[in-house]
Amino acid sequence: MHALAVKLYSSCTNYISMSSLFKPFKIGALEVPNRFMRSATTSYWSDEQGIIRPDIISLYGKLSKGQVGLIVKGHLYISKQGKAHEGQAGICSDEHILKLRELTKVVHDYECKIIAQLNHAGIYSTVDRAGPSEYISEGWKARALSSDEIYEIVESFGDAVERTMASGFDGIQIHGAHGYLISQFLSKLANRRNDQWGGNLENRMRFLVEIYDEIKARVSSNVPIMLKMNCDDFSWNGFTIEESVKVAEAICNKGLSLLEISGGGVGRQNKLRKRAQSHDNELVEATFAGHATKIRAATRSTPMALVNGIRSHKCMDALINKDIADIISMSRPFIREPNLVKKLKNGQPEATCNSCDACISDEVFSKMMLRCHLD
Ligand SMILES: Cc1cc2nc3c(=O)[nH]c(=O)nc-3n(C[C@H](O)[C@H](O)[C@H](O)COP(=O)(O)O)c2cc1C
Q1: Average pLDDT for residues 206-211, to the nearest whole number?
Q2: Mutate to test the pocket of ligand 1, among 38, 41, 52, 120 (most ligand atoms within 8 A of CB)
Q3: Hey, what's the torsion of the CAs at 348, 354, 360, 364, to 10 degrees?
Q4: Does the pLDDT at position 148 exceed 80?
Q5: Most buried of 5, 114, 192, 368 (most Cβ within 10 A)?
């Protein structure tokens, strides 16, 4: 090998071996082999009953073989009424357990960890559009849930957690982001109730807190409970960064194991996304890094994962070294390169995903198994 190449190669491998990205990290009692997380990503390919198909199990095998430390399974509906889209997997019936158990076994065979993301779609349900308040959009209308129905949903989260444990998952992630039911309750745009579930922030976060407490009561103390939450809905009069800091602080104080920061809720507008950016040049690709810094300051003792836009090894290292996040979370890059962690470890400087979003276009979503359509 040419002398310069040898020098470059050895400085590159030194850099990589020094990077804490590839070192183990503890999330409560759960030790993960590195700082990489596959953010929840629906494969939109389960059968009509929400039972996962073999293609999905094989995808999780590839991800685990590719050495991603922590995998969050694509969102699972906790009740039939909470189903978000065709092809979504469910965890609302014991019939779901058998295949999910196969999936967790494949992941564990590669010594990887897997978390179940639990969700209710609320006003975006394909079965029964219902949320905190009546909501009217182009071509559809959602009704308001009664207080009894709200308590039933909280209980359904608890029942789903018992099936999650029976399926062999290593923990739970509550889906509190992206405009689904929990995020709808947090948003003053979607939640216009004037009872104990709406109005001030304390009331709007009650649904999330009740779900957290219900889950906590159903699992043993060493099972990690995580939350994916918006830093900002990016909508006029929706959930803001100031509110997100307060909710994050409150839920972390209850003993949350890991907070994953995302963004975008009911009424989102792309042009408002830039307010979440960091002014630090090394962090610009991590599109929510500015807002994440504010949440981090209020929740420092709780491990934090950051998602959205992160692609380069350089930015990943900067996020850890500058103490913005503990865990690097990605979705689309792992659709293209399930073995991305191995590649980064071997010196590939960045993910080859260009965020084209062809994997979520109407032509493919729920019509075929999830895959990258870039080439
Ligand atoms: C095909 C696809 C499916 C997704 N499914 C989920 C999901 O089930 N739950 C969730 O919280 N986010 C879901 N997301 C969002 C991702 O987890 C992630 O927040 C988002 O893609 C931004 O991260 P990225 O830039 O690394 O892709 C999905 C994204 C894609 C592209």
Answers
A1: 98
A2: 41
A3: -80
A4: yes
A5: 114
Domains and CATH numbers, the chain: 33-360 (3.20.20.70)
**Contact 132/89 with Cβ under 8 angstroms?**
no
Whether the per-residue pLDDT at 8 is higher than 70: the answer is: no
CA dist 117 and 108 (Å) reads 17
E strands, the chain, are: 25-27, 30-32, 36-41, 70-77, 89-90, 113-119, 130-131, 135-137, 140-144, 171-176, 225-230, 258-262, 304-306, 327-330
> Rounded to whole angstroms, what are the CA distances from 203 to 237, 243, 260?
17, 12, 22
- Given a cut of 50, whether residue 33 has pLDDT beyond it is yes
- Over residues 226-252, the mean pLDDT reads 98
What average pLDDT does range 35-61 have in this prediction? Answer: 98
Mutational pocket test of ligand 1: of 118, 262, 331, 334, the residue with most ligand atoms within 8 Å of the beta carbon: 331
Quote the tokens at residue 79: 């009740």
Q: Say whether pLDDT at 13 is over 50.
A: no
Tell me, in angstroms, the distance from the centre of ligand 1 to residue 36's CA: 15
The SS3 call for residue 362 is coil
Give the per-residue pLDDT at 19: 83
**Whose C-alpha lies nearest to ligand 1, atom 2?**
41
Place of tokens 């922030």: 201
Give residue 309's region: left, alpha or beta (phi > 0; psi -120 to 50).
Answer: left
Q: Give the model confidence (pLDDT) of 321-341 as tens digits.
A: 999 999 999 999 999 999 999
To 5 degrees, how large is the angle CA 241–CA 245–CA 248?
130
Mean pLDDT of 200-229: 98
CB 327 within 8 A of CB 263: no
HSE, side-chain direction, 13 A CA sphere, residue 198: 19
